[in-house]
Amino acid sequence: MKKTKFIAILIAVFMVGFLIAQPLHAITTEEIAKASTLEQILKRGTLLVGLEAGYQPFEMTDEKGNIVGFDVDMAKIMAKALGVKLKLVNTAWEGIIPALLTHKFDIIMSGMTILQKRNLKVNFCEPYYYIGQCLLVNKKNKGKIKSWRDLNKKGIIITTKLGVTGSFTAKKLMPKATLKEFKSENEGALQVANGLADAFIYDEPQVRVFAAKYRKQCFGIFKPITFEPLAWAIRKGDVDWLNWLNNFLRQVRGDGTWAKLKKKWFVDYVKEVAKKTKKK
After folding, report:
1. Is the pLDDT of residue 159 over 90?
2. Whole domain around residue 242: which residue ranges?
3. Alpha carbon distances (Å) from 53 to 20, 45, 149, 186, 240
4. Which residue from 19, 59, 93, 123 has the fewest beta carbons nearer than 10 Å?
5. What mean pLDDT value characterizes the chain?
6. What is the reported pLDDT for 35?
7. What pLDDT sits at residue 134?
8. Total-model pTM
């Protein structure tokens, strides 16, 4: 090896060692706080909430085209607590997590089930509601279908929404049946109401709404098939925003706000749907 080449190598090794030995800039808690979504919301003056307005009674559009529901009311209270305006960003379910990760909004408030696969991409707050998969069954099957076990047969047609836990549950527990998936909950339930399918599998609150809406054609089996905690989702690594949200949730649970909203949307709303159906 030539002497000049050897010296060059020694200099390069020395420089690498020197750079490695330099102390890295320590990130302070103040810097972490400034980078938080919480601070961005306060500076912007608007809370951006992502949801899919098709999941009754959590979020849906009313007769006037307004987005309403349990999550919407909770978002309004959250924005008021932050002292900012609220903007709802209606987003297709299959793109809702990618939209959060690309900063289209600050939080997903859309009845999202905590799944380990999802938890690899986002952070979840503490659960704010617990559900299970239930069944909407066509009345022609009265006495024949008493539980999900009766659906695991060839010739049985089950419907649900594409890409949701109802789909995962049906594939796992009822593999012998034919599963048909639709882009919306309404399409899946309507198939059962029209006698084109035997049962619709979905979240308990939504099934109760459909059982009230299609009470003449269908009945509900409300014994939960699964245990599913629902939670708000945020981008990973944001401890300040997560801390604020968990404390907010504890507050609204403790002061009776959560219970009032539960009665409004999971009891009174279902009764209202039943009354409207009865009049028709």
Report:
1. yes
2. 32-130+229-275
3. 52, 24, 31, 12, 28
4. 19
5. 89
6. 80
7. 96
8. 0.79
